[in-house]
Amino acid sequence: MIIAGAILCAASVLAPSFGTTILRAAGVLILLAILSRKNQAVLVSGFTLCAALLALIYPEGVYWPIHLVVPLTGYSILAAAWPKMRSSIQWPRLGQWTIGVKLLVVAVVLLSTAGLLGWYLLAQPNLSELRGTISGVPGWAILLAGLGFAATNAALEEAIFRGVFQDAFESAAGKTWLAVVLQATLFGVYHYSATSVPDGVIGVVLTFAYGIMLGYLRVAANGLMAPWVAHTIADAVVFALIMGNR
Questions:
Q1: How many CA atoms lie within 13 A of 211 on its CB side?
Q2: Sign of CA dihedral 163, 118, 151, 192
Q3: Which of 49, 62, 76, 155 is the most buried (most CB within 10 A)?
Q4: What does the alpha-carbon distance between residue 44 and residue 1 come to, in Å, rounded to a whole number?
Q5: Residue of 31, 76, 72, 19 lying closest to 50 (CA atoms)
Q6: 208-237 pLDDT, tens per residue?
Q7: Which residues contact 73 (CB under 8 A, 6 or more apart)?
Q8: C-alpha to C-alpha distance for 228 and 231, rounded to whole angstroms
């Protein structure tokens, strides 16, 4: 059921025009999860139901960070309502910050920055539409907006992909490496959207590879702080690329 929930989440991104079908399937899924009394399945199904509802109401997409906040809020409400579900959640922890973890963070930052710059130079994308969303904003405010976006987006995506889904996949599959691959796959699919940087097929591929690195970093650090730091820096680079695009 957890895999089915992830598939429906991916469908809500790739095929929002089928919102009614996806929502019905998500409704059936959460009923089956409740009947099975599997806590992780219920929580993921709640997340999926909220994502499907958004796809139905806003098939053209919603403004950032609504597509992340609403499903995560649904998940959190379910977790808060039932103590047994809350006790099954293992991912909300900062983790270790050892020398080895710091070196891994540096490696991930260097690799992700090189990948983003390589994509930018080779693809020469037109990011003017994204840049236009903050046109007319003073320079000091743009800097604060960039830092706020990077930190917030990284926190939300780490909570969802390296938190909610990696935790759920591992509880279902029992294999850490498979959980890392599965969450990275879903992470990549979520970045197919035209508002993602990079987007499209290349966005899926690059983000999948990045998701593997962040998933491994979460395992190595036994928490979310290390991948959040690396992710924040990557998102800051993305914001800089958008602002520097001409």
A1: 29
A2: negative
A3: 49
A4: 9
A5: 72
A6: 999 999 999 999 999 999 999 999 999 999
A7: 50
A8: 5
- 83 prior amide bond cis, ω within 30: no
Token reading at 46: 């709640």
Residue 129 burial class via C-beta count within 10 angstroms: exposed 0-12, middle 13-18, buried 19 and up: exposed
Would you place residue 246 in the very low, low, confident or very high pLDDT band (cuts 50, 70, 90)?
A: low
Instruction: Compute the distance between CA of residue 209 and CA of residue 145 in angstroms, rounded to an integer.
Output: 27
* Amino acid present at 95: G
pLDDT in tens, 36-45: 888 889 999 9
- Token output for 246: 């001409």
Whole-number Å distance between alpha carbons of 203 and 33: 32
Q: Which candidate, 190, 192, 194, places its Cα nearest to that of 161? A: 190
Percent of the chain exceeding pLDDT 90 equals: 65
CB-CB neighbours of 222 under 10 Å: 14
Say how far apart CA 46 and CA 33 lie, in whole Å: 10
Only one residue has tokens 């995560």, namely 72
Q: pLDDT at position 4, please? A: 93
Q: Do the Cβ atoms of 52 and 8 come closer than 8 Å?
A: yes
User: Tell me, what amino acid is at 139?
Assistant: G
Mean pLDDT of the chain: 91
Give whole-number Cα distances, 78 to 46, 75, 87, 105, 169, in Å. 7, 5, 12, 32, 18
Q: How large is the C-alpha radius of gyration of the chain? A: 18
